[in-house]
Amino acid sequence: MNTKSILLSLGVIATFTLGGYWLGTQTGNMSISTSEAPKDIQHQDMQDAPNSDTKKQEDNEILYWQAPMNPSEIYDEPGKSKMGMDLVPVYADEANSSEGMVKINPVVVQNMNVRTATVQQKDLSTAVNAVGKVDYDEQKLFNVNPKISGWVEQLHVDYTGKMVQRGQPLFSIYSPELVTTQQEYLLALKTNDKIRSSSFEQIRAGGNSLLEATRKRLEYWGIPVSVIQQLEQTGEVKKAVTLTSPATGVVLHKNAVEGEFIKAGTPAYKIADLSTVWVQTSVYDYEVPWIREGQPAQMELSYQPGKTYRGSVAYVYPSLDQKTRTVQVRLEFPNPNLELKPGMFANVRIHSRPKRDVTVIPNEAIIRTGERNIVFVAKGEGAFEPREVTLGVEGGQRNNEIEILEGVQPGEEIVTSAQFLFDSESRLQEAIQKMLQQKQDTSDMEMEKKDTTPGEMNHRTEPADTTDHSSMNI
C-alpha cells in the first residue's frame, strides 16, 4: 500500500514536470520570435535613418577640417585640434560660395532674434531741433545823434525802455551855429524875393543858389522839414531845435542829459523796432544740408507752454565754429504783441523740404568701419551677403533713416540687428578663404614645378679610341 502510493506520487510529479517543461519551451520560442521581429525592424530603421545623411555627406566634398573651438584653425586631414578635440569636417555646401558670404542655420537666426528691414524708395525729410536765443532785428536798430554840437535844452523821452512812436519828440538842442544858419536862411530868402524880378539872369541865379545852399545845410544837420517850413512861414529864428524819433520802437540806450553839452556825432538815443525779432541758433554740420533760406520754422518758449510761434529761416551763416562744429542760423519771427523779448531762450524746430524718390534704409543697419560702410543683405535660407554702400544725408524722425546713393536696391531685405556678429563671421570666412586660396596656389606651384623639371639625362663618356692605326696592313 505504501509502495503504490509512493509510485503514484512520483508519476504525478514527473507528469507535471514534463508538461511545464514543454509549455515553457513553447512560450520561450514565441517570445524570442516576437522580440526578434521589432529588433530586425529597429535595426533596419537605424540603417535607413543615417542612410540619407550619409548619402548627403558622400555627395558633398569635404573642403577642410576645422577646430570646433577655433574656426580659424583649419587642417587638410582629420585629427585632433591644438586643444585635443576632434576636428569637424566642413563640406562644400556649408562653405560660403562668395567672398564674405555668411551662412547661418535658420533656427540659429531665429534664436538670435535677427531683425530685417526692407529697402524703401520714398521721400526723405527731417526736422532740425535746436535751442535759440531771441535777439534784436539788426535791420531795425536806429541811432539818434545830433550832427551839430550844442546844449540839451529839454528832454521829452527821459528814461531807457520807453516806447516811442515815429516822429515823437526826443529832445531839444541849442546850438549857436544852428541859430546863425537860421538867420542866414531868412536873409537868403528875403534877398531871393527882392532879386527875383531882376532883369539880370546871373543875379537871379546867384540868389537862388545862396538860398538852396543854406537850406541844404539845415537838412544835412538833421533839421526836420516841418521845422524849416515853419521858419519860412513865421520868419522867427528858434533858439532850440527839437529832434524826433526816426521809428516806432523801444529806447535801448539814452545818453542825453538835460543841460549837458553834447558834441556832434555823440549817440543820444538808440531805438529798436521790435515788431520783428531774430532768433539766433546753431545746428551741427551734418544738419546744414537740410537747411535753406525761406524754410518754415517753429518756436516754443518754456515761459509760455502750449503756444507756438511761426517764422522762417532768414540766413545761414557761411562760417563754421571750429570748437563746437556748428553753423549759426538766423531765424525771423513776427512780434506784433511784443511777447518775444530779446534775451529769451527758446526751443526751435526747422522743417526741411523733402528729397524726392530716394533709396532709404534704417540708420542702425549700417556698420561704419572708418574705411567703408557695410550692410548685410538677407539672401534667404540663412545666407547673408555683406555689401558696401555709399551714404547720403540722414533724415527721418530723430535721424533714424539715411539715404543710400549706391549699393542696395529698393525691395531688398537688410539686417538691422546683430550685424556686428555677422561682420565678425564674414571677416573670419573671408580670412579662411584667403588662407585656402593661398594654400591651393602654393600646391599648384609645387606641382607645376615638378611637372616642368626635366629628368636626369644619362651622359656616359665613350672611351677614347687609342688603337694605333699606323701598324695596320691595308
Structure description:
The structure is a single chain. The protein is of the alpha+beta class and 474 residues long. The chain has four domains: 34-95, no CATH class; 102-124 and 357-426, conserved putative lor/sdh protein from methanococcus maripaludis s2 fold; 127-137 and 274-353, Efflux pump adaptor protein, beta barrel domain (Elongation Factor Tu (Ef-tu), domain 3), CATH 2.40.30; 146-267, no CATH class. The chain is built from six helices and 27 strands. It has a six-stranded antiparallel barrel with strand order 7-16-19-18-17-20. Strands 4-24-23-22 form a four-stranded antiparallel β-sheet. Strand 1 (62-66) and strand 2 (74-75) form a beta hairpin. The longest helix is centred in the first third of the chain and has 58 residues, at 2-59.
Quick tags:
alpha+beta, single chain, Membrane fusion protein, Cu(I)/Ag(I) efflux system/membrane fusion protein, cobalt-zinc-cadmium efflux system, 474 residues, 31% strand, Beta-barrel_RND_2, HMBD, transport, six-stranded antiparallel beta barrel, 27 strands, four-stranded antiparallel β-sheet, Elongation Factor Tu (Ef-tu), domain 3, conserved putative lor/sdh protein from methanococcus maripaludis s2 fold, disordered C terminus
The helix/strand class is alpha+beta
Measured as a percent range, the helix fraction is 25-40%
SS strand fraction: 25-35%
Estimated radius of gyration: 53 Å
Main β-sheet, spatial strand arrangement: 7-16-19-18-17-20
